[in-house]
Automatic annotation (TrEMBL):
One of its GO terms (molecular function) is translation initiation factor activity. This is IF3M factor. SUPFAM superfamilies: Translation initiation factor IF3, C-terminal domain (SSF55200), Translation initiation factor IF3, N-terminal domain (SSF54364). One of its GO terms (biological process) is mitochondrial translational initiation. InterPro entries: T_IF-3_C_sf, T_IF-3_N_sf, Translation_initiation_fac_3, Translation_initiation_fac_3_N. One of its GO terms (cellular component) is mitochondrion. Belongs to the IF-3 family. It comes from the Eukaryota. Keywords: Initiation factor, Protein biosynthesis.
């Protein structure tokens, strides 16, 4: 079975950095510490170290339970689904409910062309006075 790509950079004992900024499971900062100290804390509390941000100096890790890790993975999956995919163009069209028949036909042809080109189309109809 091919391994699935993890949602987090590193979880558990494989930590490539020597100095870490650690956050406890309640979200409170424990400060900057050496990797060995962070691993000792992890073992004492029965938690896992999860990389949150590695682009900062020092990288930020959080102590999490398995349940917290699972919930965070679900949140990230939902956020990824909700965000529009790269390369997908969204077109938006707005018109009044009192639109003339000919104008409506032209706009529906335009929408059909956009759908053929695999664009996402959002149509807004305003109520006429």
């Amino acid at each position: 079975q091919p391994k699935r790509k993890a949602a987090f950079g590193s979880v558990g004992r494989r930590i490539p950095y020597r100095i870490l900024h650690v956050i406890n499971q309640d979200g409170e900062s424990l400060g900057t510490m050496h990797r060995a100290e962070a691993l000792r804390l992890m073992d004492e509390h029965g938690l896992k170290l999860v990389l949150l941000r590695e682009n900062v100096e020092p990288p930020v890790y959080r102590l999490m339970t398995g349940q917290q890790i699972h919930e965070e993975q679900l949140k990230r999956a939902e956020k990824k689904k909700a965000s529009p995919k790269a390369g997908v163009v969204q077109k938006e069209l707005s018109f009044s409910s009192a639109i003339a028949k000919n104008d409506l036909e032209i706009k529906t042809k335009q929408i059909a062309q956009w759908i053929e080109k695999k664009h996402h189309v959002k149509v807004t109809i305003r109520q006429a006075k």
